[in-house]
Amino acid sequence: MKFFQHIARQAPRDTVHLRCLQFFTRLVLGFCFPTYTMKTIVMHLLNVVPVSQWRRRDLLQRLLDISDSLCLCVLAKRLNHFIVGNQRLPQDIIHLPPDVQMARPYNLFHRLAEEPAAHNQAINDFQVLRTWFKRILLGEL
Description:
Number of domains: 1
Structural class: mainly alpha
Low-confidence stretches: none
Largest sheet: none
Radius of gyration: 16 Å
CATH class: Mainly Alpha
CATH topology: Poly(a)-polymerase, middle domain
CATH architecture: Orthogonal Bundle
Helix content: 55-70%
Mean pLDDT: 91
Strand content: under 5%
Distance between the termini: 34 Å
C-alpha cells in the first residue's frame, strides 16, 4: 500500500499504472497466475520505469512490458517478491526491519522451479493468455 501511495504522489494526472494492473488482474482470472503475480510484476516495473512513462499515451507499451515481464518470469521460473530482499525500494517506504530488507529475495515462482508439470502448465497458460491479450488489443473479440 505504501508503494502505491508513493507512486500516486509522483504520478501525473493521466497515469495508467492502475488501469494496467486492473487489465491484467482481470485477464489472468481462470489461469494459473494469481492476481498477486500481476501486482508484483507491475510494482517491479513501476520501480524501474519512471512514472512519467506511465501516461495514457504509453498505455500500449506498458501493457506489452507487463506481458513480456510475465513471459520472462515464467521462462526463468522466477519472480522475486517485491518487498522481501528488495534493496531498490524508494526511500520513503524503506522503513522495514533490516532482516526483511536484507533477506534473500523470495521467489514467488518457486513451485515452477520445483515442479516441471507446474512449469509446463504456466507456459501453456501464458501462451493462451498472450493470445487473448493480442485479440483484445486488436479488437478481435
